[in-house]
Specification:
single chain, 11 helices, elongated, 6-stranded mixed beta sheet, 13 strands, alpha/beta
Length: 283
């Protein structure tokens, strides 16, 4: 659905250098801090900004070559995009209906009611979370093949985020050929959603892994000075000095659990993996 190879985009002192892929039938997550390069990657992939080097293939074409028919296959939310605040939700329905032949008008209105999005209230009066819901519901109700969601859960409370994520799961279950690219700085949102995850930091992809592998095979080793000196470091990705000794990120948790029974080896969450990849030192 999307292939990005050697994408380079320079903004002053910031340089994005990105290679990634979204496979058909998969949900791919892009995680990183605010300002890491997530939104720049999305905009370049959609042809909304120029770039300095690299190749992008979206739905099998360069973004600039996409036809209106191609664009109908995309459902997109961007962080700064949205509808005019001087419209009501009921006013945008005819617009969406005209833009997308496959727009599910009744489905959209039903989802608005389900998610508590008022139809007769001006959008400028919506909260940040309500605007986020509206963007997602509009993007998902025209039977797109590929959703590109930049920070779609920003501004939502825990319960609303969970309902939106379940909506993405339902969308994928309806058609095995659909795909989603989703970014978030709330990494826990993506742990139970994505098939694979890319981590980006300062414009660089620092890790790409299947989510199941990340959650089951990656771990944190807690070692004192003596244990650390004796530790085989073949499967250590990052190390950080701590008051007790060292924290070590490994991609082979089971190996250290079996061969170093006295070590504390913890299952690492996605947040902990990100923290170690960013804050730890590479051996």
């Amino acid at each position: 659905m999307l292939k990005i190879n050697g994408l380079v985009k320079k903004y002053g002192d910031f340089t994005l250098d990105c290679t990634m892929e979204v496979r058909k039938g998969c949900i791919t997550g892009l995680v990183g801090e605010n300002g890491a390069g997530k939104s720049t990657t999305f905009k370049a992939a959609l042809g909304l900004i120029s770039y300095d080097a690299g190749e992008i293939s979206l739905l099998g074409k360069e973004p600039a070559a996409l036809t209106e028919k191609d664009k109908e296959k995309l459902g997109v939310t961007l962080a700064e995009s949205g509808f005019s605040g001087y419209l009501k939700v009921k006013d945008i329905v005819p617009v969406l209906n005209a833009m997308y032949p496959e727009f599910d008008r009744s489905g959209f209105l039903n989802l608005c009611r389900k998610f508590g999005v008022p139809l007769d209230k001006y959008i400028k009066e919506f909260s940040t979370g309500m605007k986020a819901k509206l963007k997602v519901l509009a993007a998902i109700t025209h039977n797109a093949d590929f959703l590109i969601m930049d920070e779609p859960t920003t501004g939502l409370d825990v319960m609303a985020r969970d309902r939106i994520l379940n909506l993405f799961r339902e969308y994928m279950e309806e058609d095995e050929n659909r795909s989603i690219l989703i970014s978030s700085h709330i990494s826990s949102d993506l742990e139970g959603l994505c098939d694979d995850i890319y981590m980006i930091h300062n414009g660089q992809i620092i890790l790409h892994e299947e989510t199941d592998v990340l959650l089951n095979e990656y771990g944190l080793i807690k070692a004192d000075e003596n244990q650390y000196r004796k530790l085989e470091k073949e499967f250590i990705l990052r190390v950080r000095k701590e008051t007790f000794g060292y924290a070590c990120l490994t991609s082979q948790k089971q190996y250290y659990m079996e061969n170093y029974p006295d070590l504390v080896v913890e299952k690492g969450s996605l947040d902990e993996v990100i923290t170690m990849m960013i804050g730890g030192e590479k051996l």
